[in-house]
Specification:
The chain has 14 helices and no strands. The chain is mainly α and 276 residues long. The chain has a single domain, classed as Orthogonal Bundle (ABC transporter involved in vitamin B12 uptake, BtuC), CATH 1.10.3470. The longest helix has 26 residues.
Length: 276
């Protein structure tokens, strides 16, 4: 019994593990709360594009010596605005506008990084560094998570209506485009927050996998949101334990645990359909 208690407690006797857990749980809630909307509205490509489009902002912030988080946030906001503007003014299909901006921003980031001698130090941006979260990072992550959860709570009915019945939304004076813009802004915030945890390469997993897993076992969006947040939080905790005791990258392990949860939910859904 003592050995089990020691096994459970030991990782969190380290301050960096405690900060990593808190930051990881906050990020899990922020991303998973949006993942149901991302999955149900078919916006997975958007989440991936925003995660990679932050690269020039990070590179500029690193070169100028100010907050990487704020640099990434600025680039994400600019990318989201550019995607929406191109799709609206030029009448491009949304995926084409996303592709153009995504590639352009990512290429700009690579060019800027090529001019920075120590750009290899930014490897944690690509692959995450949850155990390197500082107290300042925690404050920013907590603020972003609170903003996302509060916005979803206050605008839940509007988001549902505009997402699944645009005609009715317009008839009651609600702009589907405005609601979509709000959702894009929230996704951008969540993507930037998740970069610290799992890195730009794996951000899509936090923005899609929890919602996709929940969608396998429920068709109610409100229930899906709660399930997604719960699964993402559990995956973060389990991922940290596994990575600590196996000396493997925390971000990658968290994503693997989430993927395992998705496979489990898909299996349960398949069995239930077969038994009906």
């Amino acid at each position: 019994m003592d050995a089990l208690i020691e096994f459970i407690i030991e990782p969190f006797t380290h301050t960096f593990m405690v900060r990593g857990l808190i930051g990881g749980l906050l990020t899990a809630v922020a991303c998973a709360s949006l993942s149901a909307f991302v999955v149900w509205r078919g916006m997975s490509f958007m989440g991936d594009a925003l995660a990679h489009a932050v690269l020039p902002g990070i590179a500029i912030a690193y070169a100028a010596g100010f907050s990487l988080f704020l640099g990434a946030l600025g680039a994400a906001a600019a990318a989201a605005a550019a995607m929406g503007l191109f799709a609206w003014q030029n009448r491009l299909k949304e995926d084409a506008a996303i592709g153009v901006v995504f590639v352009g921003f990512f290429a700009l980031g690579l060019v800027i990084l090529s001019r920075i001698a120590a750009y290899s130090d930014l490897g944690h941006i690509l692959f995450g560094n949850i155990l390197g979260i500082s107290t300042g990072d925690l404050i920013l992550i907590a603020a972003v998570t609170l903003a996302i959860v509060a916005t979803l709570s206050l605008c839940f009915k509007e988001l549902i209506t505009a997402s699944f019945d645009p005609a009715h939304a317009m008839s009651i004076g609600l702009s589907p485009e405005l609601v979509r813009g709000l959702l894009l802004a929230l996704i951008a915030l969540a993507a930037v927050t998740a970069i610290q945890t799992v890195g730009a390469v794996l951000v899509l997993a936090l923005l899609v996998t929890p919602g996709a897993a929940a969608a396998q076992i429920t068709r109610r969006l409100s229930v899906s949101l709660l399930l997604a947040a719960g699964m993402a939080s559990i995956a973060t905790l389990l991922g940290l334990y596994i990575s600590y005791y196996t000396d493997t990258p925390s971000g990658g392990v968290i994503v693997l645990v989430l993927t395992g949860m998705f496979c489990l939910c898909a299996g349960i859904a398949a069995v239930c359909r077969t038994s009906l």
